[in-house]
Structure formats: C-alpha cells, structure tokens
Design brief:
With 98 residues, the protein is mostly beta strands. Helices cover 10% and strands 30% of the residues.
Amino acid sequence: MTEQKIKAGAAPAVAQVTPARGINAKLIDSVEVVLDGYLGRATMTVAELGALGRDAVITLDAALNSAVDLRLNGITVARGELVAVGDNFAVRITEIGQ
C-alpha cells in the first residue's frame, strides 16, 4: 500500500469516482467503505516491540495538536482535529479534498 503525503497548507487529493452511464448512483451510495484515522507513526526494533507491556507508552512522530488524516484505501481524503465524543474519540473535519 502506498502512502500519499500532503504538503502543509495543500488540500488533500481525492480520487474522483464517476459512475459509468446507466448505473444507478443509489447502488454505489450503499457500498460500505473503511475510513482510517491516521495519527502518526513510531519506529522501533523488534526487541523494543517485544518488550512492550501493559501501560507502555509509544511516542508518535506527531505533535499533540497535529491534524488527523482520514484515509480511504491509503489515500488521504480529508483532515481534521481529534475530539472527544462521550467516551469515544472522533475527528472534526477541517479539510476535505477536492
């Protein structure tokens, strides 16, 4: 899977899907997709990974107030900020690709 990077201040690229003629758009609208929220990454050795236990903390390469990328099949389609909704995390969308 390839990773698409977005330059600071640039709008994320979005793959445009145009249904072929004669296909009812309502059929496509009901297809479920998986949207991933990407917070950041960490690099560690296998030994460090094996040493992790309960209550371990992994520091990501993103600042606390960094934007969360929303990815569809590895492609960033939107960005937002992490918020709390009850006992869950959520993303308030601040940018949508064109």
